[in-house]
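Q: What structure does this chain adopt?
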Amino acid sequence: MMDGGIFACPDGWEFLLPEGVAHLRDMGAVCVHRWRLLGLTPTGCRILAGERVEAELLLAPGDCSLAGFSAGTVVTYGLSPRDSITLSSLTEPVLCVQRALPLACGGVLEPQEFPMPGVSALQTLLPWVGVRLLWTGSPYPL
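A:
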């Protein structure tokens, strides 16, 4: 079984997911396992609201209600300055890690910025980029 997953991501993102991270399509697949890393899209967060979800490292939208969720560490993403992963620029996309974050593979990712040239709609891609970042330590596809 996979140790990492992202719930309710668009099918077009599948080829971008790092090895070992599954595209989870139904609640049952999410709720029957304790994940090393679980990423939630905004849609996924709404679908799972109130369900029993367990993860060592949970990536969720900053405005997601986490009632019923159990996580060792929660990392939030979004455009709020309170989010752990955000964008420091929208015109020339720059991904910003605002605080030290644990990595699913072990170790810690220190605060830093990652230029994302040529990436349009990076705000929409934050769940995918966040999963890749927390799984591999880099937001860039290999």
